[in-house]
Design brief:
Hypothetical protein af1432, single chain, 2 domains
């Protein structure tokens, strides 16, 4: 990997995640980078491109969540610094991969780079997914009461992660596939999943209580 590219991303790109909601801060971007690089080992791909795609994939959240994947793609296309390391063709492939990473996308990623970052972004760990779902609700819907937060979390988990959810995996036989099946079973046990959400809400409530 080119060290000057890595330095640029670590100094100028990753710090931008520090201002995002708790579920999409720098630790999330770093996790997607790490997972992308691991997944890429089984394919003939450019490691610098894999690293860059993962680093840029959620930058569009600085505008909004709904279109963040498209905004992120435009950020890749318009970052003139990237021309130091990549051709115009490579930049377009990276921009498309960033655009294609979103779980609710209605089309298959257009390249192996898109499949890698989409799979890495899933990073399905049931406990982390439930935590991030609640964190997102607390950060973006502070006006909701406890019951509404629980219902919002359940609705999101069902719509995205249930057996009939919109999330798709693009790397056959991945660890994500096994973990997603585990999450399906957890979501079927309604009392248990509600209890998990309530414990997270209690933890946040206790943290915010005056000492």
């Amino acid at each position: 990997m080119k060290q000057d590219l890595k330095d640029y991303i670590e100094q100028e790109i990753l710090p931008q995640y520090d201002g995002f909601d708790a579920a999409h801060r720098r630790d999330h971007a770093e996790k997607v980078i790490c997972e992308s690089l691991k997944l890429s080992e089984g394919y003939e791909v450019d490691e610098d491109m894999v690293y860059t795609i993962a680093a840029y994939h959620d930058l569009g959240l600085r505008k909004d969540r709904k279109t963040h994947h498209l905004v992120s793609g435009d950020i890749v296309r318009t970052d003139m610094k990237l021309r130091q390391w990549f051709s115009e063709g490579q930049i377009e492939v990276m921009a498309q991969a960033v655009e294609d990473h979103r779980a609710s996308s209605n089309h298959e990623p257009r390249s192996i780079y898109g499949r890698i970052v989409a799979e890495a972004d899933r990073n399905i760990d049931p406990d982390t997914i439930i935590l991030r779902t609640v964190q997102y609700g607390l950060s973006n819907y502070p006006e909701l009461d406890r019951s509404s937060h629980i219902n919002r979390a359940l609705q999101h988990l069902d719509e995205k992660y249930s057996q009939h959810g919109y999330l798709k995996l693009w790397i056959p036989g991945s660890e994500n596939e096994r973990r997603l099946r585990q999450l399906w079973k957890m979501l079927e046990d309604r009392p248990a999943i509600i209890a998990r959400i309530e414990r997270i809400l209690d933890d946040y409530s206790n943290d915010s209580s005056p000492s």
